[in-house]
Amino acid sequence: MWKEAKTEELLDSCIVNTSPVEVLLCVHVALLCVQENPDDRPLMSSVVFILENRITTLTAPVAPPTSHDKVLKLLI
């Protein structure tokens, strides 16, 4: 849903209507924090800086660790 720009569909409409930019920023940062490769994850100091300063120019997250292939490998 992130890649399709449909993130709002995952969120409670009460939250989205209050501050959609901030909510989407939090979702974006959360996706960055759960990258499969630890080197791709931001440092906590960076997360704090991003959220405090409302930085919106962030790198795009790659597939989350719960991607289809990884789940399949765990099941086999």
Overview of this protein structure:
By secondary structure, the chain is mainly α. It has one domain (7-75). The protein is 50% helix and 0% strand. The longest helix has 14 residues, at 20-33. The mean pLDDT is 75.
Topology:
Layout: H1 13-18, H2 20-33, H3 44-53, H4 68-75
Any key phrases for this structure?
single chain; mainly alpha; 4 helices
- Mean pLDDT, rounded to whole units? 75
Shape: globular
Strand and helix order: HHHH
Radius of gyration: 14 Å
Please report the number of helical segments.
4
Task: State the secondary-structure class.
Answer: mainly alpha
Low-confidence stretches: none
Major sheet: none
- Percent of residues in helices comes to 40-55%
Fraction in beta strands: under 5%
Q: In total, how many domains does the architecture comprise?
A: 1
Terminus-to-terminus distance: 27 Å
Work out the number of β strands.
0
